[in-house]
Design goal:
The chain has 797 residues and is α+β, with helices and mostly antiparallel strands. The strands form 6 sheets. Strands 1, 2, 3, 27, 28, 29, 30, 31, 32 and 33 form a 10-stranded antiparallel beta sheet that branches. A hairpin with a 5-residue loop joins strand 23 and strand 24. The radius of gyration is 41 Å and the shape is elongated.
């Protein structure tokens, strides 16, 4: 304790008690140590998964319990504690230690290795938990960390003023303290006002124009466009980031935001009701319209929900997606499913003719029903490629040319994406010849092809036409097990029937007495539900956590936001619609699924909505003149060694926003950003850093990827460049603080001790000279009135 602090403490006795406690606390070195410990703990919980923190805390409590159980009896034996308190404390700690040991050593280990909870908490960081959900920079910029740092700054300043003498030999300590305070303040400023983002620039010869905005790397936003009313952007700082929030679990109103109030018509409400960090939009069947309120209905059909599992009825919540089946009888492409074990088909409008075909016995794996209505001829033949069949005395001769899959999904309206197997049969009668494509699952899609050698528009089989009604050919594919569920939705009391076609077996038709039937020894089909008025809707499909790309976590890249649009209609029920918005990285450049969604609201018209990133306006306009990628030699596809952009930057006229000067050329390259001095305000004031963060590699599988135009530019690659934009506010302050610390440490540890030793020697010499002068005969040195010497290792703190 320095002499200065001793004097200050004496003066503190005159202060009121609360003020004295406060000044003593902020003058304490212990407070600084505690605050730095909190900073270290804060950094630990920001880096270590929650599961490991919980296990560490459990094992720490076990250690405390064990040492406490051993320490209390020792304290009792030594007489350091009253007997009653020691015994009671020992009993409580023994019970707690036993329970914590069980919890920590057995339950925690079992939890860590056998449950889904660990798979989540063993990887998630505390700022990714529901209720927090912020980025790492945002977590370090959060108010608890800012409060700790500000308390540390106050503690450092107050302790320095009260404890350290302001004299020459203490310059090092004062410099170090000043550097610590400066560095801390700079860090607070940096974390508070730091902004990072990027923008997409196309080459001027491809897309003539300039950009004057960039998009934030962290903060999401919602964009609304109403024709004849304008558009607006709403930042969404409260939007989650890491966890799944299905429809109805969120309630974030956005239509009442200040920026949207002048834009939104009366009676229209927009609010976010769900958020999924990694999801796709899929088309699926809802058995009841209430299962998907407000969703867009794409089609309606009788639908049956099935599950593939063991004999016992499965729990729907434990089924994997590939175990659930939805069959829609009115949609040909979705009324059947092909599994490894069998084909399963749902039929609700089974005609007698089709039932007769399905119940026809075939001696082999492939059969053909030949019918000539005019003569009453009907015969079933087992067939194989190359076989020739004479149809009795009808005059028809049939040659089986091919048997197998049709090859491509159907594109005929109503049959989109449906597939089938077919037999190609050459039909001859007299001088007439054509080929019949006889379909198995969809016999109504059978077609004839008449050879037209002189017609260049005819296909390889000939000219397509409808099947000749004079002869009916029905191909029966019995190469694998087939199960047909015959259901009459309009007759609820009638049981579901099953038609089973097994290879080399007689067909079977029977009513199902149960809601299940086997398709193999271990696999059963369970009927979990059905609806006559099911609707096909668009709904989110959440990607399981183990399948998610770590690069997409927390960045909104693959996220999906659910927005409920409600329009109040006088005298009627409110009109509602749920809009699913994929995140768009660049709102002006839609691609694939990442594009705006437009809906038509009654009484208002079309509304366009976009889920993207927050937009910041630049104080200048920027364009891409040229882009250059330097690849490593002899690499194909080319591996970039360096890439750079020639940027055209021009200031904007403050009144009309047009270029106010001839554009200047900046050339940022990899690891070599360009610095632009910005005269703007807010986050873009001062120096802006423009860095090269991405480029267009083109389609590397394109054989013409290396094609160039007459000017030597690549045609199929390097069409755009991604430029990062950021400010480094406060970084200079951090640098100055670091320099002060580096400069002050050598002075404090080397220069100050040397100065104190030097001063000590000078005092000793002065005392020796004075003593010699006072007692010249004996030279005796007395220390009765000798002043206190300052030791070389003393400190002022």
């Amino acid at each position: 304790m320095s002499l200065k602090y001793q004097r200050v403490k004496q003066h503190d006795l005159t202060l009121p008690t609360p003020v004295r406690w406060l000044t003593r606390a902020f003058s304490s070195i212990r407070l600084a140590v505690c605050l730095l410990t909190l900073v270290a703990l804060y950094g630990t919980i920001a880096s270590v998964p929650v599961g490991f923190l919980a296990l560490g805390a459990a094992y720490a409590l076990i250690g405390l319990g064990v040492f406490g159980a051993l320490g209390l009896p020792w304290a009792l034996i030594q007489g350091r504690m009253p007997k009653s308190i020691a015994v009671l404390g020992w009993i409580l700690i023994a019970i707690a230690g036993t329970w914590i040991t069980y919890l920590g050593c057995f339950q925690a280990f079992d939890w860590a290795t056998h449950t889904d909870a660990w798979r989540y908490y063993g990887k998630v960081i505390i700022y990714q938990l529901p209720g927090l959900e912020m980025t790492e920079l945002q977590f370090y910029s959060w108010w608890p960390m800012q409060l700790i740092l500000m308390l540390f700054v106050v503690n450092m300043i107050w302790a320095t003023i009260r404890r350290i003498e302001f004299k020459f030999e203490n310059i090092g300590v004062l410099t170090v303290h000043t550097g610590i305070v400066t560095l801390t303040l700079g860090s607070i400023l940096y974390s508070t006002f730091k902004v990072e983002g990027d923008l997409l620039l196309f080459r001027q010869d491809i897309e003539d124009g300039y950009e004057n905005v960039f998009y934030d790397a962290v903060n999401p936003a919602f964009y609304v466009l109403l024709p004849n009313r304008g558009q607006a952007m709403v930042p969404l700082p409260e939007l989650p980031r890491y966890n799944d929030y299905p429809a109805g679990t969120l309630d974030i109103p956005i239509s009442d935001r200040t920026k949207l109030e002048p834009l939104i018509p009366e009676g229209l409400s927009l609010r976010i009701i769900g958020f999924l960090p990694d999801a796709e939009i899929e088309e699926t069947w809802a058995l009841e319209p209430t299962d998907a309120p407000g969703a867009e209905i794409l089609a309606t059909s009788p639908v049956m929900r099935l599950a593939l599992a063991g004999r016992e009825t499965p729990n729907q919540n434990t089924l994997q997606p590939e175990q659930l089946l939805m069959l829609a009888s009115a949609v040909p492409g979705e009324r059947y499913v092909e599994t490894h074990h069998a084909d399963i088909e749902l039929l609700t409008d089974l005609s007698e003719q089709r039932a007769s075909q399905l119940l026809t016995e075939v001696p082999g794996e492939h059969g053909l029903i030949v019918e000539v209505p005019a003569t009453g001829y009907r015969q079933v033949f087992p067939i194989e490629p190359g076989q020739t069949i004479t149809a009795g005395s009808t005059g028809y001769q049939l040659t089986i040319e091919e048997i197998g899959p049709y090859g491509l999904p159907f594109v005929t309206p109503g049959y989109e994406q449906a597939t089938d197997t077919r037999a190609v049969v050459r039909v001859e009668q007299g001088n007439e010849m054509f080929r019949r494509l006889a379909m198995s699952r969809f016999p109504e899609r059978s077609q004839d092809f008449v050879p037209q050698p002189d017609d260049p528009n005819a296909g390889p089989l000939g000219q397509r036409r409808d099947p000749d009604p004079a002869i009916r050919l029905t191909y029966l594919d019995r190469s694998k097990p087939q199960f047909h569920l015959v259901w009459s939705p309009d007759q609820p009391d009638k049981p579901v029937e099953l038609i089973a076609n097994l290879p080399r077996s007689a067909p079977l038709r029977a009513a199902l007495g149960e809601d299940r039937f086997p398709i193999s020894r271990q696999l059963w089909v369970h009927m979990l539900g059905a609806s006559q008025t099911a609707a096909k809707v668009r709904q989110p499909a959440i990607k399981p956590r183990p399948q998610r790309d770590p690069k997409d976590i927390g960045g909104y890249t693959a996220s999906l936001m659910l927005v409920e649009v409600t329009k109040q209609i006088e005298g009627e029920e409110p009109w509602e619609r749920i809009v699913m918005l994929h995140h768009m990285r660049y709102p002006r450049h839609p691609s694939g699924k990442n594009r705006p969604e437009t809906i038509t609201v009654p009484g208002i018209g079309p509304i366009t909505m976009i889920f993207a990133r927050e937009r910041h306006r630049l104080p200048f306009i920027i364009g891409l003149a040229e882009f250059q990628m330097d690849p490593y030699p002899d690499t194909y596809p080319p591996v970039p060694r360096d890439f750079s952009s020639d940027l055209l930057i021009s200031r904007l006229h403050p009144e009309d926003g047009v270029p106010a000067e001839v554009p200047r050329v900046y050339r940022p390259s990899l690891n070599n950003p360009a610095i632009v001095h910005s005269p703007g305000a807010g986050i873009v004031k001062g120096k802006l850093k423009l860095s090269q963060v991405g480029w267009d590699p083109g389609d590397q599988t394109d054989p013409a990827i290396e094609a160039r135009d007459e000017n030597g530019r690549f045609i199929n690659q390097q069409r755009f460049s991604i430029i990062g934009v950021g400010n480094n506010v406060g970084i200079q302050i951090v640098f100055v603080g670091a320099c002060l610390i580096v400069a002050g440490v050598p002075w404090a540890f080397y220069v100050k001790p040397w100065l104190l030793q030097r001063r000590k020697r000078q005092i000793q010499q002065e005392l020796a000279q004075q003593q010699t002068k006072n007692d010249p005969k004996t030279g005796d040195v007395t220390n009765q009135n000798e002043p206190e010497l300052i030791s070389a290792g003393s400190s002022d703190r």
